[in-house]
Design a protein that fits this description.
8 helices; 329 residues; Thiol Ester Dehydrase, Chain A; 2 domains; 24% helix; ten-stranded antiparallel sheet; alpha+beta
Length: 329
Amino acid sequence: MIPDQLSEVELLKILAEAQWQYISTVLERPQQKIVNDQGERLYGSVINVDVCFRTKTPMDLGEGTHLHIYNAAQFYSRRFVEGFFCVNDAPLPPVTLQAIRSKEDLEKLTVPWAYITMAFVAREESNQRLKTFAPAGAEYGKEFTTDVVPSGIRDHEMVERTGAVTLPGLELALPVENPGRDEVTYDIVPESDLNGAGLLYFARYVAIANYGERLFLRQGSRVQITTRLIRLLTTIKRRVFYFANANESDSVKIRINAFVLRPQERAAVSATSVTPLTFYFVTELRRESDGTLMAKLVTQKDLTISKGIKSLILEAGRIAQQFRLPPEE
């Protein structure tokens, strides 16, 4: 948990474990027995993550919420796994997930969802380059495979080629000016950042990006935002594309480009709260040692404030004026 809302990072950890359990069931062997032809244990290296909380935000899924998580997966080219997830605070009918065979199907849902594409990799002496493998002796039933290149792989290749990442609405937002302080450094902490394979865990990339975004708004932006408003930001959509890992002795350079707008169609999230501002963050994570791009993220976060906290609503209004946003219609 993070204050007053579901932790996106902790949710990703739960989803990854659910995906591995699904893989273990399909391959009919425990996770620690999934190996390549050389007998080396295989791990999952995430290629991309898409999450969407458009209908219910992490604030709606806060402390005391009983989460219902549904997942399915399909294998592509024996080395890759495409995972589909639904997350809700109430049970879903079984037909909901049975019809999902692509990310496009997830986007039609009216509940929060996640999409994770990963590859099987073996542990290496260095985390800087990873090689993919197919599990030894794996026989996938046709119902668990696809011949269609997963959208996560296609999108990953496009982002790697062009460097462009976006979300709907970002094109309408205004750039947040910064006085040259758009980059911060994060030192990797082995005790909390690495997984069992000694790799920087995929969910920690999101935590590192959150750290950079928070510092940017508090210190790097020309219009500085108070901590009490920053803690009210909640993720609506996020896309993450992974390109490289890092050794535990390395550090991560975080570079932020932020954008802001005043939402028109969702001024009131509920009967008890308002959303005066929406932020978009385009974030790059690079290894400090050699400048290699590790990941690129694009995130939409809404500033959601209880209608009863008038002082924060007024503060958000003053910030909107400092950003020179057009007045509310």
